[in-house]
Design goal:
about 15% strand; alpha/beta; 12 strands; 3-stranded mixed sheet; 11 helices; 7-stranded mixed sheet
Length: about 280
C-alpha cells in the first residue's frame, strides 16, 4: 500500500491534531507568523509560497506538500474539518465536539488505508445549494462574481479542454467545499500544476483594490470551485471514479455546538428548506 499522508492545516498555536500515523499537522502561513509551532511541519520550508497565505489560505500547505513531500496519497484536512469513512452518509457533514483522540477514533482512519486501495480521488460529499455554483459564489459573503468570471476566462484560454467540465460544474448546484480531498500522487501532481497556473494568472490580472481581509482570501475561495471543475473533468474525460465521503466539523465551544446542531436539525445541510431560508436572508 502506498504511503498516505493526510495534512491537517492549522494556523493558530492552540490548534491541536491528535497523534495518528496518517495525520501530518502543518502550520500554514508560517512565513508570516511570529513562531513555528513545535511538532508541526511548516509551509515555509523548502520551495514554498507561505507568504501568500493571506490570499491562498490552506493552499500554501498544498503547494508546500506538492514541492517538498513524497507520498503515494496526499490528503488535506483542516484543524476542525475532516473527512470520515462512511460511504452511506446522506448528509454532507455532521457536527462533533472537541477534537481529541477519542473523538477521532470513530472517523475510520484506521481502516482508511485499506479502503483507499485502488482508488484515485476522494472529495467531500457534494452539498446541494439549490442554486448554481456560479450564482452561489457571487452571492456568498466576501466573494465577488467578477473574480470567478475572470477565472472562467483564464481556464478557457489556458485549458480549453476543461471548458465543458467547467460549464457543467458551474451551472450545477452541487458544491464541494473546503479545499479538502485525498488524491493519488499522479492526480495530485496534475491538479496542483493546473490549479496554481490558473491562480498565478488570476493574481496577475485581478483587481482586488479595496478588498477587506476576508475578501483577500479570494484565491482560496476560487480554488474550492476549481476543485469541482477538476473532478468533473476527471469523471467525464478520463473515466476516473471520484469517491465522496462526508465531512465532520469539530466545535469545542458547547454553546456554539448546540446552536449549530439545532440549526442543522431544523434546516438540514443540502436541503431545499435551508437554501430557501438563506435566499430569503440574502
Amino acid at each position: 500500500m502506498s504511503e498516505i499522508k493526510l495534512f491537517v492545516c492549522c494556523h493558530q498555536a492552540g490548534q491541536r491534531v491528535p497523534a495518528h500515523p496518517l495525520l501530518c499537522p502543518v502550520q500554514v502561513g508560517a512565513a508570516l507568523a511570529q513562531e513555528h509551532f513545535p511538532g508541526f511541519a511548516h509551509d515555509d520550508e523548502g520551495e514554498n509560497i507561505s507568504q501568500k497565505n493571506r490570499s491562498y489560505c490552506e493552499l500554501t500547505a498544498h503547494y508546500w506538500a506538492w514541492k517538498n513531500v513524497q507520498a503515494g496519497y496526499y490528503g488535506f484536512f483542516h484543524y476542525r474539518r475532516y473527512l470520515y469513512l462512511d460511504e452511506h452518509a446522506k448528509r454532507p457533514y455532521r457536527l462533533a465536539g472537541e477534537l481529541t483522540a477519542e473523538t477521532l477514533e470513530p472517523l475510520g482512519l484506521d481502516q482508511l488505508g485499506s479502503w483507499l486501495e485502488g482508488k484515485d480521488c476522494v472529495v467531500p460529499l457534494g452539498e446541494d445549494m439549490h442554486i448554481s455554483v456560479r450564482e452561489h459564489y457571487a452571492k456568498a459573503p466576501y466573494h465577488h462574481g467578477k473574480d470567478l468570471k475572470l477565472v472562467e476566462e483564464i481556464v478557457a484560454e489556458q485549458h480549453p479542454d476543461y471548458v465543458p467540465a467547467m460549464e457543467e460544474y458551474f451551472s450545477g448546484t452541487m458544491c464541494y467545499f473546503g479545499n479538502i480531498f485525498i488524491m493519488k500522487k499522479p492526480l495530485f501532481d496534475q491538479y496542483c500544476g493546473w490549479l496554481f497556473s490558473i491562480l498565478e494568472e488570476f493574481d496577475r490580472r485581478a483587481d482586488t483594490t479595496g478588498y477587506s481581509t476576508q475578501e483577500l482570501r479570494v484565491d482560496g475561495y476560487l480554488a474550492e470551485r476549481l476543485l469541482g471543475v477538476y473532478v468533473t473533468h476527471l469523471r467525464s474525460t478520463h473515466q476516473t471514479q471520484v469517491f465522496e465521503l462526508p465531512r465532520v466539523q469539530f466545535e469545542p465551544d458547547q454553546t456554539k455546538l448546540r446552536k449549530r446542531q439545532l440549526l442543522n436539525a431544523l434546516l438540514p445541510p443540502g436541503s431545499r428548506r435551508r437554501a430557501w431560508v438563506k435566499k430569503g436572508r440574502g
